[in-house]
Every structure is written in structure tokens, then in C-alpha cells.
Design goal:
With about 220 residues, the chain is mostly helical. It has helices at about 10-25, 40-45, 45-70, 80-95, 95-105, 110-140, 140-145, 150-175, 175-200.
Length: about 220
């Protein structure tokens, strides 16, 4: 019998943590040791790969932290939440691909297309995150009875800002790849602020029950 206040999300959080860990690890596979001589010039020559790797690593790390924050109030799991979470993880695992494309083409003729693909991936992630969050809120009385109204409103607002901003980043990328990537970097800072705000709210994020947003 379930004890009062007991979380029943351990398997969901453990599985999600594993997917986040794999996705963030796969990013490094696209980094190649330069063969050009001298070595310094070779290292400078792979700056697009280093930039895309760093941006994606930081973004996935922030998403993991926000995912943890979103699940902090969740006590139970239902089918809607399981599949919404799986849908979100589908796009998380896809991130290494546009990261690799951006790293290879940011300094070339197809930079704009690569940047559009990269920003577009985060549009999809934002939509998936909104579905994940909606699953929590819709079943709130059973899944997250302690979730305060102010946090629901805050996350809804952040997801709306994120969606519009990533769509703008896709459009801007068609005009300037670097401008589009720069907007994605600015959004990473926005999600960092969201994560700090969530984790500074006195929530219990202890690892004893397993670590647990964006948009």
C-alpha cells in the first residue's frame, strides 16, 4: 500500500535520466582530432563542431535539470504521462544529429540550412515538452496534487516564450546562420534562468527518489 507522500515515479525518472545521459554522451562522438599541421590551426578549424557541441551539451543539461524540476511535484504516473514523456525523449535523443550537421556545415555554404534544422529541432522539443507538461497538469489531482497554480502559470508562460522564440530562430537562420545560432544560445540562457528559478523554490530534488523542463 502506498504511503502518504510517497513518490511512484522512480522508474520513469531513472529511465529518463538514462536517455538524457546517452544523448549528452553521443554529442562528443562527432568531435574529431584534427589532422592538419600545425595542431593549433587544426583545432581552430574545427570551431563549428566545438561550438555546436558546447551549445547542445549545455542545452541538454539544462533540459535534464528542468525535467527534474517538472517532476518534483509528481507523485504518481499514468499512461498519458508515460507516453508524453517518451515522446519528449524521442526528440532529446535526436539532438546529436542536428548538432553534428551544424558542426559540419556552419562554416560552409549550407550553414543556413544546418542552422534551420538545429533551431527547428528545438521547436519540436518545445512542442513535445508542452505535451509532457500538459499531461502532468491535466491529471494534476492524481499525479501532482501539490503542484501550485503559480508554477503551472510560470511553466506555461516559459513554454510559450520558448516556442515563439525557436520559431523566430528558424526564420532568422534563413537570413543568417550565426544569428540563428546566437538566438539559440540566448534561449539556453533563458532556460538556465528557468532552471535556477525552479530549483531555488525550495523543492525537494533529492536524488534518493531519482533525479527528475524547457520549451
Amino acid at each position: 500500500m502506498q504511503e502518504a507522500g510517497e513518490k511512484r515515479t522512480t522508474r520513469l525518472e531513472a529511465f529518463s535520466d538514462g536517455v538524457f545521459a546517452i544523448a549528452i554522451t553521443l554529442l562528443v562522438l562527432e568531435l574529431r582530432v584534427p589532422e592538419e599541421e600545425p595542431l593549433l590551426e587544426g583545432l581552430l578549424g574545427i570551431w563549428p563542431s566545438l561550438l555546436s557541441f558546447t551549445l547542445s551539451f549545455v542545452t541538454i543539461l539544462i533540459m535534464w535539470a528542468n525535467h527534474h524540476a517538472n517532476l518534483a511535484h509528481v507523485r504518481n504516473v499514468d499512461g498519458r504521462l508515460l507516453f508524453a514523456n517518451g515522446f519528449l525523449l524521442l526528440f532529446i535523443t535526436f539532438v546529436p544529429f542536428p548538432t553534428a550537421v551544424l558542426g559540419r556545415h556552419l562554416a560552409g555554404e549550407d550553414a543556413r540550412v544546418a542552422a534551420m534544422l538545429y533551431a527547428g529541432t528545438f521547436v519540436a522539443i518545445n512542442v513535445a515538452w508542452a505535451a509532457f507538461w500538459r499531461a502532468i497538469v491535466k491529471g494534476r489531482s492524481y499525479l501532482a496534487p501539490d503542484l501550485p497554480d503559480r508554477e503551472v502559470a510560470s511553466v506555461n508562460g516559459a513554454l510559450a516564450v520558448g516556442f515563439v522564440s525557436y520559431v523566430v530562430a528558424v526564420a532568422v537562420s534563413w537570413l543568417s546562420a550565426m544569428a540563428g545560432v546566437g538566438l539559440c544560445m540566448a534561449l539556453a540562457l533563458f532556460w538556465t534562468w528557468q532552471s535556477i528559478r525552479h530549483h531555488g523554490g525550495g523543492h525537494d530534488h533529492g536524488l534518493a527518489t531519482g533525479p527528475a523542463e524547457q520549451g
